[in-house]
Design brief:
Length: about 475
């Protein structure tokens, strides 16, 4: 596809096609987006969601009241405790010990160390009427951010598992009282802020297999909103790559007798900045040098540069990744050192479902969530790796919870105030309402499943269209399109 042809195509795309992030996506995958639009017109998710949220249902209303009682009685305090005892990814030992004790006390069977991850767990509850009904899944996180002042909950992950417990317990009590068959599974997922992505590891191990739906919550410094149906991921497609430069040590007074890995790393780091004008503007390159040598008087023989390479789609991301790899090898060649690439994590587009996105938004509106955003945003999947959403329909709930920026000390502080507490309670109520409707409304459950099957079937076509669109620009040959 020539650039001239692509430019003309961009101009021809109707203004209503806002399902994807970039103009290239919208143009190249116009047929796929048209089919998504047709599916959404058939399913009418907004109309369906409004009807579900507005209907009179005494059992649902009691469920929402029970969530509030559980949150106010114990789980808000549990959220605050985790906030005051932050632990970074892969080291959330106190949080996991406390959360699993709370879950066991509520009748859940708990397995820890799942997927070979010491701080991952799965908590399962089966209805007294049997587990033959839908399996309702909830995701809980609990890791803190890494910071110069130590670990801190600047993304409010302290609340996510207490929120999930409040929703899960209330739904379990309803199922037990009404003899509704089914199963509830709460997945404790560590290290959301540290690669490699734990959810991807757990997915590969089959931990999520069997869930019919997954819901999760997350903090938000943005308006309370929802995503459009389509393909995307919260924080863009990401390759996590460490560039390990290896040289030879020597005394710095006779530095020519060594090979300076730090000089190669700095040359590479500088080269990445020089690459930015050759890459599409949506590219995001974020790097640090966590290992830069040991002593000023010794030629550094090992230096590590750690990059998050981000782009809205995975096809052009591969091109950006290859550009950085060449820059790293060039810097190593110039200085006479070696470089090894450690690819330790990948995040890819997930699937956003209009049926679930509109329903959670309708309940957020019904409950009086603050700062509602009227227009749907780009597709983001429902969890940060994207992978799990390709297998299981689900939704993320993000009621506005902080006036501070994401990953800030202000957001951490507001997790302990009324702003955070009220948002977390609403998160739990919205999650419980979505699970309740999925459990009890067979027509809605079928619509969710139909939408997920259709979008999952379109994902390969979407990626193939992007490969064709980028082929000339990034030098793809016919053998690897």
């Amino acid at each position: 596809m020539s650039r001239t042809w692509l430019a003309l195509l961009l101009l021809a795309v109707p203004a209503v096609l806002h399902a994807q992030t970039t103009e290239t996506e919208r143009a190249a995958a116009r047929d796929v987006i048209r089919r998504i639009d047709e599916l959404e017109a058939q399913l009418q998710p907004a109309k369906r969601a409004e009807a579900l949220a507005a209907r009179r249902d005494a059992d649902r209303d009691r469920l929402l009241q029970r969530v509030e009682e559980l949150w106010n009685a114990e789980l808000e305090a549990l959220s605050d405790w985790i906030a005051r005892h932050p632990e970074v990814g892969w080291k959330e030992f106190r949080a996991v010990d406390t959360l699993t004790k709370v879950l066991r006390a509520r009748g859940f069977r708990v397995e820890t160390g799942v997927a070979g991850l010491e701080t991952a767990f799965v908590a399962t509850w089966d209805s007294p009427a049997g587990p033959s009904g839908p399996t309702l899944g909830l995701i809980g996180e609990y890791d803190a951010l890494r910071g110069t002042r130590g670990a801190f909950h600047g993304d409010q992950h302290n609340a996510q598992t207490p929120v999930a417990i409040a929703a899960a317990q209330a739904v379990a009590e309803h199922m037990a009282a009404k003899r509704v068959p089914g199963r509830i599974v709460l997945y404790g997922t560590p290290a959301e802020e540290v690669g490699p992505p734990a959810k991807a590891i757990m997915r590969e191990a089959g931990i999520f297999r069997g869930a019919d739906i997954l819901v999760r919550s997350h903090s938000s410094s943005r308006n309370t909103g929802r995503s459009r149906a389509g393909f995307g991921v919260c924080c863009l497609n990401i390759n996590e790559v460490k560039y390990v430069f290896k040289g030879e040590p020597a005394h710095q007074l006779r530095s020519w007798q060594g090979r300076n890995a730090l000089e190669a790393a700095v040359m590479f780091y500088t080269a990445v900045d020089r690459l930015r004008s050759s890459l599409r503007p949506e590219t995001s390159l974020q790097g640090v040098i966590p290992e830069g040598g040991v002593a000023p008087n010794v030629v550094p023989d090992r230096v590590v540069v750690d990059y998050y390479i981000r782009y809205p789609d995975e096809v052009y991301l591969a091109h950006v990744d290859s550009m950085l790899a060449r820059a790293a090898r060039g810097a190593a060649l110039a200085i006479g050192v070696e470089v090894e690439l450690e690819r330790y994590g990948e995040y890819r587009d997930g699937i956003s479902l209009g049926t679930l996105e509109e329903l959670q938004f309708a309940y957020a509106k019904k409950l009086g969530a603050p700062r509602l955003e009227p227009e749907p945003e780009r597709p983001t999947g429902y969890e940060e790796t994207g992978w799990v959403t390709r297998d299981i329909p689900g939704v993320g709930v993000s009621v506005f919870s902080s006036r501070g920026a994401t990953h800030s000390y202000e957001m951490e502080a507001e997790a302990l105030t009324d702003v955070g507490h009220a948002a977390f309670r609403m998160d739990a109520q919205v999650m419980a309402a979505v699970l309740y409707d999925f459990l009890t409304q067979a027509d809605f459950r079928r619509a969710v499943q139909e939408e997920h099957r259709a979008l999952a079937g379109l994902l390969d076509q979407y990626l193939a269209a992007l490969r064709q669109a980028y082929a000339e620009e990034i030098g793809l040959t016919s053998t690897n399109r």
